[in-house]
Design goal:
The chain has helices spanning about 5, 10-35, 75-80, 90-95, 120-125, 155-160, 195-200, 255, 310; strands spanning about 60, 105-110, 115-120, 130-135, 140-150, 170-175, 190-195, 205-210, 215, 225, 240-245, 280-285, 300. It contains nine helices and 13 strands. The chain is of the alpha+beta class. The longest helix has 22 residues, at about 10-35. It has a single domain (about 5-315), classed as Sulfite Oxidase, Chain A, domain 2 (Alpha-Beta Complex), CATH 3.90.420.10. The structure holds the ligand Nc1nc2c(c(=O)[nH]1)N[C@H]1C(S)=C(S)[C@@H](COP(=O)(O)O)O[C@H]1N2 and molybdenum atom (MO). Molybdenum atom binds next to loops. The ligand Nc1nc2c(c(=O)[nH]1)N[C@H]1C(S)=C(S)[C@@H](COP(=O)(O)O)O[C@H]1N2 binds near residues 82, 83 and 220.
Length: about 325
């Protein structure tokens, strides 16, 4: 393994996967050109195969969108973190179709007047579909610009009528035992996340059901996930089956596994280094840069709260953001 790979935090297995992936695609393209059909079992990671169903119109464009250059659909759906599907960046795309998303229900419980088990339809129906182009920043120092489709989490929370004891919102991901990452105990399942009530109610916080006008694929957290653009990527929990209104700060997966590295707040902060990676800079995986070629692009400065400070910094007035990281 070469030093620049180590410095970039890349495992050799990822390189192998990326190469394999490219070769598989070339093979598929070649066999398509040669008119070979049906006889071969297509690998799950075949990018051309994996497109979500088109979302119904209208999709309203949000004023919260950035004008930064978009990441490509291919980059967004083939370079992912979703540990239930495996720990390599290519695993979520490879195994995404194994995630069973129909039927899907969401349990809403805890301190609210309208708890219950809701179907995905129940949750989506009253809300206008938006497109919001957000910068997303992973703690591993790469970032993407993603055209999400969905709506404000606040709109769903209001319908559930949380009571005065509801100080936090806790989220859980589905646990499907046959998923390759779930079988290995890399994290304690279910994957858990949480927000303080005012963070959850902030208009930037969204529930997403699609991207680029298409339903989410398994690797992106189908059928419904959280998107919190001013926090590190791991707060944006995928494939949500439970939302709970709670009085105490909830446990979160990464904080449980490594509290020194991952705090509850997880606001993007270039001035607070993660013990293993500086957070001052990032590699933007946008335009023509894909996951692997981005290693050769230069890093850009990471912005405080990922550039969303104007909208959200006041939520943390008076808090020490080094301690409350
Ligand atoms: N359930 C679940 N949600 C998850 C993760 C995960 O492993 N499991 N990974 C997180 C991390 S570390 C990141 S960076 C983002 C990546 O989202 P993306 O693959 O859509 O870019 O998903 C987050 N949500
Ligand atoms: Mo991440």
């Amino acid at each position: 393994m070469r030093d620049w790979m180590k410095m970039a935090g890349i495992r050799s297995s990822e390189i192998t996967d990326q190469n394999l992936f490219k070769r598989r695609r070339q093979f598929l393209q070649a066999s398509a050109a040669a008119g070979v059909t049906g006889a071969i079992a297509l690998p799950n990671s075949a990018y051309a195969e994996t497109r979500g169903e088109a979302l119904p119109e209208p999709i309203v464009k949000s004023p919260f969108s950035t004008t930064d250059e978009l990441s490509s659909h291919e980059t967004i759906t083939t370079y992912n973190n979703f540990y239930e599907l495996g720990t390599d960046k290519g695993d979520p795309a490879r195994y995404g179709s194994r995630l069973k998303t129909e039927p899907w229900s969401l349990t809403i419980d805890g301190e609210c007047d309208n708890p219950g088990v809701y179907t995905l339809e129940d949750i989506l129906k009253p809300h206008a579909m938006e497109e919001r182009i957000y910068r997303m920043r992973c703690v591993e120092a790469w970032s993407m610009v993603i055209p999400w489709n969905g709506f404000a989490l606040a709109d769903v929370i209001k319908r559930m009528k949380p009571n005065s004891k509801a100080k936090y919102v806790a989220f859980e991901t589905v646990v499907q035992d046959d998923l390759p990452g779930v079988q290995r105990n890399v994290l304690e399942w279910p994957y858990r996340e949480g927000l303080r009530m005012d963070e959850a109610m902030n208009p930037l916080t969204m529930l997403s059901v699609g991207l680029y006008g298409e339903e989410l694929l398994g690797q992106s957290g189908a059928p419904i996930r959280l998107v919190v653009p001013w926090k590190y990527g791991y707060k944006s929990i995928k494939s949500i089956v439970r939302i709970s209104f709670v009085e105490e700060q909830p446990d979160t997966s990464w904080n449980m596994s490594s509290p020194r590295e991952y705090g509850f707040y997880s606001n993007v902060n270039p001035e607070r280094s993660h013990p293993r990676w500086s957070q001052a800079k990032e590699r933007r995986l946008a335009g023509s840069t894909s996951g692997l070629s981005a290693l050769f692009t230069s890093k850009t400065e990471t912005q405080f709260m990922n550039g969303y400070a104007e909208q959200v910094a006041s939520l943390y007035d008076g808090m020490d953001l080094q301690t409350n990281h």
